[in-house]
Amino acid sequence: MILERTPVYRRNGDRARCNAGVPLRELAYTLALLTATGTLGAAHAAEAANSTRADKPAQNARADETAPAKEASTEHTDDPQSLRKMFTQGDFDGELRLLYFTNRNAFFAEDVDRNTATVGGHLGFTSASLHGFSLRVSAYAQRGIDHAGDPAERNRDLGPDLSTLGEAYVQWRGRDFRVRAGNQALDAPFTATYDYRIIPQLYQGVSARWGDDTRFLTAMRMFRYKSRISESFDRTTNYNREFEPFAPNTDAHTDGFWAVGAGDTVTAGPAEFAGQAWYFEYKDYARMFYTEGRIAEAEGDWRPFLGLQYIRETEDGRALVGEVDHHTYGAQLGVEHGSLTATLNYDAIPSEPDTYLNGALVTPYAHNEASGPLFAQPFLTSTQDLGSGDAYAAEIKGAPLADTVLGARYSYMDLTPAAGAGSIDQSEYLIYGIYQFDGALSGLSIADFMAYQSQPGQPHDFWENRLKLSYSF
Asked: How far apart are CA 56 and CA 20, in angstroms?
């Protein structure tokens, strides 16, 4: 999402450079050279926004998730040349993106239009596996090409020129178990690398995982963080003034977070049961327990399903955003038919006066970003940043044509950010479409998301359109 109040972003120095010392121009030359010499891999990464998974509708409709890093080959060799083959048999991957965001009365501010176009992408390399060990490194760059001269009148995330080292880790994999250490993307509630941008949020630390998408155990300890507008890893979060300078954000640095999680999927007769549970300790912010369950018809043309979720959170350590006392009770009722998925979504957040945002959820790494796994959420703003009360959403999406995804969502946020205040009564209408080319244009895709939002207490309505053209290789 875009911040409700976009701060001025200032870079240190006149030229943005990659943390590894690689300027954007050199990165572009490298990309062009690799393409010209034919050493770039021909595999095309599928867009995550094409997913129609019903148990995480917001994440899929909000944006295309950053694709996970390519896994190294599990083939091991013991000949004297195996170390060299670890690199010569590795794979390059990358993506080029053009984003153009247009809006009117941005976040209800009269005549504030932060129209911004930017280009960028990434280039990555994943080595082959040697005795289970592999390496991954990637670099990202972004350049604004059409925006206002005043940083306050451009999109905060797309306006600045950025170059940064991305993923950089060593991994060991054996059977269904892997350990990863270094700069990495995560797949966990409220910390996943998603949202509609060029440069993803990444974490620096160690993670371990056993299993697959249907049955897993995982643990992680992250020490540093890089937001989508930062060129370096540090001990900040999205509640730091480097990301947004408004209260209750802080200048304090923290020691990251740790988390453990588990999930399983079981089929019993005609029903499929899926569930997951997580515990997070966001140092000096909050401790969160998250669980989600789903029961669905396993087979058939029409497959109804029911999802439930529960979140409990209290403050931790220095409690940098204040006292935290949060509960979420969520329910999702839906049906799948072929590629079509339709859902009715609800989240209840009880009011807790004298706590953060009247009982709202504290998400240090998802503040002013997509609402992650919450069932009911808008597109332009985030449920966890709006207060306590009741959140509703209805969504329908599917693939009526080959390589095409279409969807629509309505959300209503009956949420109150402070005790004694009135509800924001926020309504939002969203429509979106994604098309992936095939044949000679395989790897090329175009996506468009358009949303309209209103609040009775605001003098002007807010709308925004987000267009993306991308090529993955």
From this structure: 35
Say if residues 39 and 32 touch (Cβ distance below 8 Å): no
Contacts of 418 by beta carbon, 8 Å cutoff, 6+ apart? 357, 358, 387
- Total length of the chain: 473
Residue 308 · residue 293 · CB < 8 Å: yes
- DSSP β-bridge partners for residue 123: 94, 139
Q: Which residue would you say has higher pLDDT here, 37 or 103?
A: 103
CA neighbor of 432 nearest in space, from 393, 462, 395: 395
8 A C-beta contact, residue 309 and residue 289: no
State the Cα–Cα distance between residues 249 and 320, nearest whole angstrom: 8
Q: How many other C-beta atoms can be found within 10 angstroms of the C-beta atom of residue 379? A: 28
**Residue 72 main-chain phi, psi, to 5 deg:** -70, 155
Residue at 256: amino acid letter: G
Task: Report the first-to-last Cα separation within the chain, whole angstroms.
Answer: 26
d(CA 375, CA 290): 13
Please tell me the distance from the alpha carbon of residue 407 to that of residue 50, in angstroms, as a whole number. Answer: 11
For 240, list phi and psi in degrees, rounded to 5.
-90, 155
Instruction: Work out the pLDDT band at 81, boundaries 50, 70, 90.
Output: low
Q: Torsion over CA of 371, 422, 249 and 168, rounded to 10 degrees?
A: 0
pLDDT tens profile 185-208: 999 999 987 766 899 999 999 999
Q: What is the DSSP string of 332-380?
A: EEEEEETTEEEEEEEEEE---TTSGGGTPPP-TTTTTS--TT-SS--SS
Contact 381, 1 (CB under 8 A): yes
What is the C-alpha to C-alpha distance for residues 193 and 301, in angstroms, rounded to an integer? 33
Please indicate whether residue 308 or residue 54 has the higher confidence score (pLDDT): 308
> pLDDT for 101-140, tens place per residue?
998 887 787 777 888 999 999 999 999 999 999 999 999 9
Q: How many CA atoms lie within 13 A of 353 on its CB side?
A: 3
The answer to whether 291 and 307 have CB atoms below 8 angstroms apart is no
φ/ψ bin of 59: left (φ > 0), alpha (ψ from -120 to 50), beta (otherwise): alpha
Which residue is associated with the tokens 């629509």? 408
Contact partners, residue 398, CB within 8 Å, separation at least 6:
52, 338, 339, 340, 341, 405, 406, 407
Taking the C-alpha atoms of residue 287 and residue 29, their distance in angstroms, rounded to an integer, is 46
**C-alpha to C-alpha distance for 469 and 213, rounded to whole angstroms:** 29
